[in-house]
Give the backbone structure.
Amino acid sequence: MWSLPFLTVSSLALIQSFVVGLTLPSNEAQIQRMKRSVNAQTQQELARVIGGDATIFGPTDANWGDATVRREGDVAKIVRYANNHNIPFYAVSRGHALTTSVGRFTGIEIDMSNLKDIRINPNNATAQFQGGVYSYEVINTLWDQGFVTGIIGPALGGGHGLQKGRHGMTSDHLVNMNVVLADGSAIRVNEKSHPDLWWAMRGAGHNFGIVTSFESKIWPDNFKSYFVRVYQFGSSSLDALVGEVNKFQGVGTLDPTWLASFGLYTMNTTLSKTEATIIWVFIYDGAQKDAEPVLKPFDQLRPLSVDDFNVPYKSINNLIGGAVDGSLCQPDKTHIIGTANLQTYNVTSMRAIYDLYNQKISQQPELGGTRILVEGYAVRGVRSFKPEDSAFPQRDEYILTYFDVTFNSTDDPRIGFATEWRDQTVALWNAGQPTRKPTTYVNYAAGYESLEARYGFEPWRLDRLRKLKKKYDPKNRFAWYNPIVPPR
């Protein structure tokens, strides 16, 4: 995700409560003693299960969140332990989940952030990754050796990224996955081994297993330079700007030499204290002199500023606001999010969303950090794959949208205001395409959207996913990240 705004073995955290169905005493002191006792017992038992070099902390420990284990195989051991003790579990790679369904989880959290080995295979066509790698680690490591790949983290939900135009979704790049199933067994999943699960993992994978490592395609990049242009516009340019962007992108026909164009509404008080600034970014795989003629229509729209950059591939994400230390990746925040998928921009809707932004900021000026983002990628590579060949259902969606307001706590009194604003904005996006059913990219979903919007309106898709769920996870252990079957 752009925010100008995304497994060396796991750390493991134990989240309250540990025991399903435990009746806690009413006295607070007794509650705390029982919590410490359960924590201590669970910590000791898990330490024996996964070896002496592990350290495991519960929520009463000062080092809460810092526990680590050292081996990929320990993930299966933890899952088996959790099953034997009837404790829910949930695997985390880098903690980027914003959906409300995750907030209902209590149990053992398997934090995979130390599983971060990256190894290019001798064929120079694929690489091996452990399940906790950061996308920036992947991008930097590969680029330093002359290769690129897609953004790895979101692959189980499809995975949008700058390689879409040429190579498809990130899930389309996958070759093999090592998966821990709900019963704690570890299997290899690919086109020939468990092909039914291979289908499901690529688009709905978080419902079926924990990917501890995987093999993915890579492509030579030869250390070349990419051109990025960043415009800032005021209100008077908006309608013409959106019209020109529609001409630029077409309807799923953008030349993949153009990796993407991204738009953002946000407050920049150095330019205006009352109206949002409109930022639009274009990313080109090639020389600036070849891109500039295509961008001339945008130069003529009276931009407030124009900034040009010629950078290596590994610098693009940081340049456009997707750095690991960026605002979107800050921990312990409450996000009010909403999203819709589009094929093209409706000028009237984009104007109405902009005017609504200004209205809301006039009422709550302290929410000026609110981001309304649109992401338009080249999609030729995405469309080259058959929709029925994976669980990812949205190959005819060409634009992602994203609304995000961030708070420091879950009880901020402005959350209701922000939620209403979110709902109004998403409704305007969908009103701009009245003949199409509303859909939501599952990795951006907030949790209130319909299953059909996330996993596909064709009845056979959810039917197939539910049958596979009964086969591979009959007890619904993977029920926390935008689940097909909600937890009981």
